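Page 37, continued from 36.
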């Protein structure tokens, strides 16, 4: 059964349209279970009903005509209860609803299971049989497993089906993801794809068909040459049987095999990379389903050859300078900091990514650059999006493809209103950030990108609460030298002097990687990251510490922050390395003073080591993004569980309050530099807990300052007292929203539907 299930999922995955996917589902499942009927009903959210979308066994004329509300009929009952229904005599069940057009009165046995994706019922899968019997446990388990496996694939097929119907310019599609960076943007999709990924090649119409054919032939010739050279190099070290495999590769690349088929698709109007990907995947899908072991193994060979040819085609494409639309919305599987940097800032208006979340590194950068972003769109078929007009709604986590005129006008008005609010709030940026009853809150900014430097000191700020040193490392093709780092850090320290600048030591791992220092792990957020990496590579850390200290000579505004600290031993080791770096520079005649040293409170374990840490460091900095992730055991880059990631969870608020209380008791300064500090609600809660230093991305300054200036310290302290007495996230969210309404601060929050 496992093999059957795998093959059905593969076939559905390869379907070109929703209709094709549904057809495969009903036919393959009926055959596998040897039933008389298999049908699939999909939920229509707008009409709030389940629609018969495909069947084999019932009358075909009923497709698209039969609809049932949740709770109506046996199908509606399955959808409403979100659990299987297995009965031997369907007609006698109290919920049975008769539809003459289906002809289902002939069938007694009924087994229906819900198709659920991320807690959302997509539809109902049904099998029926003439004979009066209850389906066995094994049959029920198979259909449940089938529905669970098909759920994710079906979401993709639904999206693909919606996109396939977009050939009519009047048709629009609304897709939901994760709100990763606030704001709204209207623009045109520019798709970026990872190198040699056959499954992520965008679909385009070639400008010159003959040129595309020539590109394909040249790429195949290059791969043939590579294989020939590899065979010659290995000739003396492998057997004749193994050498024959290289001949098989050459035959696969021959005109009669892949070459001709790809060329045919190009002449039908597809550009070479997409034509290649379609042909290769078709062959691979076929070979993986056959019973012959030898042929199944050849599927891997064809996939490998396809990637090799695609890599050459992409090299040719990359050699041509890309043309970005005036209002570019960057769309990709994963978007890196380097890809952000390649697009002229005046053209980039939005981001859409299949992976990532509101606290992934690229989302943090998007917020720093004030670019709306929607992420976690795992089921979006990006290969069909190139050049598509779209709206990115970073407040609600929505992507609207080919918006109709009325929706376009509505969003244009909302964008204008948002810009007017921003202008109004910016007029307050020279005013002090203090509560209405005169308590001062120090507002600092997070930096790391050059774009964050421009204009930042113009606002009234108290320094840099977090300088992300990993960003310059990401922009290089190797570890930057001490001299290069010194220059970069000096610019940062001088640019904000005499205000303090908190520089975090290299923080890679998790969702932040260096192209020249890859870290491959099954669970990267619980793996080798932050200080764990730099203590294992003291040569890297020592260069960075010396560069920071050199850059601070004569300025005295450097603060050093250690990320991902878990134990006292890590702090002691890093402190000794800092002392050694100071000694080495003094020996070289550099005037160096020991800067203040702090630790990031991100790992829950350090919450219970604050007293010991207070004797070793000068300040604490709460990294709320990771602290929330680890407290709630939620991978912040996993779209399936992102809804569980919420700073207003009672456990998170109590942990933050505990840190604030302990820091005051120990007389150690504590700040917050995570995304929570840049959210008006988060900033008010933190202020009420007793935090007096908040660091955020520069675009968040105006809203946070406005919120702080319009409340009293007593008011936010009362709010914190009230929310800490609650035990429900829903209650907490509602109380906070009501209090924001009372304070007339709702306009500072993301718009609600």
């Amino acid at each position: 059964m496992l093999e059957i299930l795998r093959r059905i999922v593969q076939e559905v995955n390869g379907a070109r349209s929703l209709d094709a996917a549904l057809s495969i589902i009903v036919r393959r499942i009926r055959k596998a279970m040897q039933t008389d009927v298999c049908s699939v009903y999909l939920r229509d959210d707008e009409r709030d009903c389940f629609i018969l979308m495909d069947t084999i066994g019932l009358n075909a004329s009923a497709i698209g005509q039969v609809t049932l509300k949740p709770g109506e009929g046996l199908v509606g009952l399955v959808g409403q209860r979100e659990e299987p229904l297995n009965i031997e005599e369907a007609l006698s069940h109290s919920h049975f609803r008769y539809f003459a057009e289906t002809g289902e009165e002939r069938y007694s046995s009924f087994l229906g299971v819900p198709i659920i994706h991320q807690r959302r019922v997509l539809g109902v899968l049904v099998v029926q049989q003439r004979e009066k019997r209850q389906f066995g446990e094994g049959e029920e388990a198979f259909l449940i497993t089938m529905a669970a496996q098909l759920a994710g694939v079906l979401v993709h097929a639904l999206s693909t089906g919606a996109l396939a119907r977009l050939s009519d310019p009047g048709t629009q599609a609304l897709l939901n993801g994760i709100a990763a960076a606030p704001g709204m943007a209207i623009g045109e999709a520019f798709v970026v794809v990872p190198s040699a990924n056959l499954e992520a090649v965008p679909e385009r119409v070639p400008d010159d068909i003959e040129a595309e054919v020539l590109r394909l032939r040249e790429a195949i010739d290059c791969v043939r040459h590579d294989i020939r050279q590899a065979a010659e190099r290995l000739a003396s070290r492998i057997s004749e049987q193994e050498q024959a495999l290289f001949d098989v590769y050459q035959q696969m690349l021959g005109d009669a095999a892949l070459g001709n088929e790809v060329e045919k698709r190009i002449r039908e109007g597809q550009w070479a990379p997409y034509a290649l990907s379609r042909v290769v995947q078709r062959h691979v899908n076929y070979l993986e389903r056959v019973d012959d072991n030898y042929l199944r193994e050849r599927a891997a060979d064809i996939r490998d050859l396809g990637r090799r040819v695609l890599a050459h085609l992409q090299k040719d494409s990359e050699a041509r300078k890309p043309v970005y639309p005036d209002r570019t919305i960057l769309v990709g599987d994963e978007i890196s900091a380097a890809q952000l940097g390649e697009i002229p800032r005046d053209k980039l208006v939005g981001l859409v990514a299949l992976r990532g979340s509101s606290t992934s590194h690229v989302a943090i950068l998007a917020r720093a650059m004030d670019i709306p972003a929607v992420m976690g769109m795992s089921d979006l078929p990006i290969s069909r999006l190139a050049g598509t007009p779209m709206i990115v709604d970073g407040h609600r986590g929505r992507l609207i493809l080919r918006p109709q005129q009325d929706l376009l006008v509505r969003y244009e008005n909302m964008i204008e209103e948002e810009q007017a609010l921003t202008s109004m709030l910016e007029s307050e940026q020279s005013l002090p950030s203090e509560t209405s009853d005169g308590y001062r809150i120090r507002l600092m900014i997070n930096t790391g990108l050059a774009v964050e430097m421009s204009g930042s000191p113009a606002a009234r700020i108290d320094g840099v609460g977090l300088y992300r040193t990993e960003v310059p490392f990401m922009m290089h093709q190797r570890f930057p030298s001490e001299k290069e780092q010194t220059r970069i850090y000096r610019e940062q320290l001088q640019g904000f002097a005499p205000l303090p600048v908190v520089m975090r030591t290299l923080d890679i791992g998790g969702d932040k990687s260096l192209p020249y220092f890859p870290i491959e792990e099954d669970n990267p957020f619980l793996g080798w990251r932050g200080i764990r990496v730099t203590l294992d590579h003291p040569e890297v850390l020592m260069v960075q510490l010396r560069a920071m200290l050199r850059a601070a000579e004569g300025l005295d505004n450097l603060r050093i922050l250690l990320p991902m600290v878990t134990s006292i031993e890590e702090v002691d080791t890093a402190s000794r390395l800092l002392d050694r770096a100071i000694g080495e520079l003094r020996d070289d005649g550099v005037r160096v003073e020991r800067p203040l040293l702090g630790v990031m409170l991100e790992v829950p374990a350090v919450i219970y080591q604050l007293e010991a840490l207070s004797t070793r460091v000068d300040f604490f900095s709460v990294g709320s993004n990771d602290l929330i992730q680890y407290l709630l055991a939620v991978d912040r880059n996993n779209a399936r569980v992102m809804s569980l990631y919420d700073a207003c969870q009672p456990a998170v608020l109590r942990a933050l309050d505990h840190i604030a209380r302990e820091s005051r008791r120990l007389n150690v300064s504590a700040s917050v530099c995570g995304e929570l500090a840049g959210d008006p609600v988060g900033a008010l809660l933190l202020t009420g807990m007793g935090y007096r230093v908040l660091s955020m991305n520069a675009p968040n300054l105006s809203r946070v300052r406005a919120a702080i200036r319009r409340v009293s310290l007593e008011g936010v302290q009362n709010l914190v007292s009230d929310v800490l007495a609650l035990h429900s996230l829903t209650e907490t969210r509602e109380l906070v929203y009501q209090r924001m309404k009372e304070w007339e601060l709702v306009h500072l929050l993301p718009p609600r539907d």
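The domain at 430-748 is CATH 3.20.20.60 (TIM Barrel). Flag for discussion at group meeting. The first helix runs from residue 2 to 13.
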